[in-house]
Every structure is written in C-alpha cells, then in structure tokens.
Amino acid sequence: MRRAVCPGSFDPITNGHLDIIGRVSKLYDVVHVAVLVNPNKQGMFSVEERIALIEEVTAQFGNLVVESHHGLLVDYCRERGIPAIIRGLRAVSDFDFELQMAQMNNGLTGVETLFVPTSPTYSFLSSTLAKEVASYGGDVSHLLPEAVHRRLVERIAERKAEQ
Ligand code: ADP
C-alpha cells in the first residue's frame, strides 16, 4: 500500500485543502488526512468537529483515513509506515517555512515532503482569511464546501450571540 499524509489544522477545511487532497488521493492507495492538535491554539472548531467536516466533504474520494494527532508529525508517519508528507504551496511566501519544516522532518526520521502547487483559484485562500472575512459578513461561499460554509456561518452567529 502506498501511503501519504496531508497534515494541517483544517480549521475548517477549505476548497484549497479539498483540491490538494483530491489530487493526491489519485496518486496514492491510501491518503491520511491528519488534523494536528496544537494545545496552545484555540480553534473556531473543535478537533472532533473538524474531523466530522472533513469526512463529510471528502466522502467521494474513498481512500482517505481522517484522524487527529497530538505530537510530532514524524511520529504519526513512523507509527503508520507513511513515507511521504504532502504540503500545498500557495505562494513563495509559504516556501521559507515549508522548506525548514521539510528539512527538519527529513533530518528527524528520513520522511520525505512533497509539495503540490495550489490551483490558482485558491492561491490566496487560507482558513484564517475565510473565517475573518466571514466574521465581518463577507461572502466566502465559493471558497468553502457547502456544508463547511453553513457550519461556519452558524458558528459565527453563535459566537456573536454569546458576546
Ligand atoms: P497549517 O496550520 O499546518 O498551515 P492548514 O490547515 O492551514 O495547516 O493547511 C494544511 C495544508 O494545506 C498545508 O500544506 C497548506 O499549505 C495547504 N493549504 C492551505 N490552504 C491551501 C490552499 N488554499 N490551496 C492549497 N493548499 C492549501
């Protein structure tokens, strides 16, 4: 079985993520989507909610394993026999940090990192920007899967009602 992992925060999953995951799912037998947990970062969605959303909007691919991971990505890869980490590259600005991480991870365990260029339609898109624009009432429905957009709008309304 040829395996790869697409790691990230996925708070929440966007069409940019979906594009990369869909393309990679055609190249490997099994693609793991790992929601990496950062205990210092309070997300818009809980890890369980992020996983449920990813599962809902990727059901068509058929060869994904979606799970969370606390700790180092290289340990996740080692425990599951995954030789390749896939990262999406949006712009040159992503490159510095991604190169550092790839070199560090390779030095730690020998795991390889492969970069997939984003579709130009999504090169400006991040979960953070989608959340920010949506929180000010901007329309981001074309940037998120429909179920994700619906949940995001609901969550923003819930948060506003609490304030
Ligand atoms: P992280 O917090 O690790 O950057 P993200 O959830 O933001 O996690 O991103 C996970 C992966 O998806 C990264 O490889 C990132 O470069 C990629 N990615 C994020 N947004 C896009 C996009 N719009 N197009 C393509 N790839 C993207």
Give an overview of the whole structure.
Strands 3-2-1-4-5 form a five-stranded parallel beta sheet, with helices on both faces. The protein has six helices and five strands; from the N terminus they run βαβαβαβαβαα. Strand 1, helix 1 and strand 2 (30-37) form a beta-alpha-beta unit. By secondary structure, it is α/β, with parallel strands linked by helices. The radius of gyration is 16 Å and the shape is globular. The N and C termini lie far apart (49 Å). The protein has helices at 15-25, 47-57, 73-80, 92-109, 127-135, 146-162, and strands at 3-8, 30-37, 64-70, 84-89, 112-117. The mean pLDDT is 96. The structure holds adenosine-5'-diphosphate. Adenosine-5'-diphosphate (ADP) binds at residues 8-10, 14, 16-17, 20, 87-88, 90, 94, 118, 122, 125-127.
Q: What series of H and E elements makes up the topology?
A: EHEHEHEHEHH
Tell me roughly what share of residues is in helical segments: 40-55%
Sheet having the most strands: 5 strands, parallel
* Coarse structural class: alpha/beta
| Shape designation | globular
Bound molecules: adenosine-5'-diphosphate
Q: Which regions have little confidence, pLDDT < 50, spanning 5+ residues?
A: none
Report the strand count: 5
> What is the C-alpha radius of gyration, as a whole number of Å?
16 Å
| Fraction in beta strands | 15-25%
Distance between the ends: 49 Å
The neighbouring-strand order within the major sheet is 3-2-1-4-5
Mean pLDDT across the residues is 96
Q: Specify the number of helices.
A: 6
